[in-house]
Amino acid sequence: MSSQIVVIGGGVMGSALAYWLTRLEPASAVTVVERDPSYSSASSALSAASIRQQFSAPINVRISQASIAFLRNASAELSLDEERPDILLREHGYLYLAGVDGAAHLRRTHSVHKACGSDVALLDQTGLRQRFDWLNTADLAVGSLGLSGEGWFDGYALLTAFARKARRQGARFVKGAVSALQLEGKRVAAVILSDGVRIGCSHVINAAGPWARRVAAMAGVELPVFARRRTVYVIACPARMNPFPLTIDPTGFWIRPEGPKFIAGLAPDDDTDDEPLQPDYDAFESRLWPALAHRIPAFEAAKLERAWAGYFEMNTFDHNAILGPHESVQNFFFMNGFSGHGMQQAPIVGRAIAELVLYGRFTTLDLSELSFARISDNRPLREANVIG
Ligand SMILES: Cc1cc2nc3c(=O)[nH]c(=O)nc-3n(C[C@H](O)[C@H](O)[C@H](O)COP(=O)(O)OP(=O)(O)OC[C@H]3O[C@@H](n4cnc5c(N)ncnc54)[C@H](O)[C@@H]3O)c2cc1C
User: Fold this and answer.
1) For the sheet containing 120-124, what is the strand order?
2) Most buried residue among 17, 39, 41, 364 by CB atoms closer than 10 A?
3) Residue 212 phi, psi dihedral angles, 5° rounding
4) What is the pTM of this model?
């Protein structure tokens, strides 16, 4: 049997994994198979690439704490000789808003963040008004503001920095579409590409993002991950509003600055699978703009400049990552189902899966709560704070 570790998908997850495998064990033989090296529809290239501590599940808070530490140091960690990648990390915080109805939930999750040691502050209506004079606080009861460790960065730059460094450390990136997995007993013996090429393997990792369910099915594994379209709207607004954290409205929309403009989004009313990646312009007019103008009156004068759409890889079981091997196919590992928070988790999940593959256990952060077994055992670990 080949000692080759084969990673299916070269997005931020597959590339982060290839980086960590070759960093932890420089002699390991790693092949990343990516069908579209231009990443034209990969989530990693279409992401809003923001990072927050404010999750409801403590395990996600712990991942974010480790991840922000990595991101702050990414330029040195992922440098190639003199070339230091700049992922443009901006720590301008997240601001979760709630009216009377949502206040209890916000207070509850705030106490989770505090217990985990995150740097967050709870603001009442007056506190919100004092800090953010551009916000309509009339129907707000409370806001939870991240004071550090939250913000946004250039996700594509992170992806390419991981991939380049992984290559430098010896990982091989192959252009090809995986069309089948060849099983021998309870193991995957080889990965088969659509042009017939066969790559023997010791381990296979499913890093196929929104297409992960199809790859899982190649080994007879049912994975509850679905491609759900999300539109990102680029908006110009003449008013100057500072500071402006990534703001999440009680209606569900999110908005944050992007250079001199803003980007925003909201979950669709009707969340169906595999919609073509065309932006939903109607939703801007009918749902987003009215809610935006209500919350931030300066946006009455805003102008939609353009929009793009990408897929959330939605885990419909519990909206959390599904990590590690599947019990029925022992050398088949999963890093899927991030439900809109995978970009920020990639540095830590990549390291964690590398540990599992190389050492058979987590050696830094224990992510066993996110293992596949919880699905087979019907023990959901629900993440309540899913955005968009
Ligand atoms: C609009 C939007 C906003 C987002 N905002 C955020 C955010 O603010 N913060 C955050 O943390 N996350 C965010 N996310 C989520 C985040 O971008 C994803 O969780 C993350 O990029 C997933 O990375 P991935 O490598 O698993 O998937 P992808 O980047 O999709 O990569 C999967 C790769 O697998 C390849 N592939 C699939 N099938 C095969 C096959 N059979 N053979 C070979 N190759 C294959 C694909 O071509 C693709 O390149 C957002 C996502 C979207 C779409």
Assistant:
1) 120-124, 142-146, 94-98, 246-248, 254-258, 261-265, 225-236, 303-315
2) 17
3) -65, -30
4) 0.97
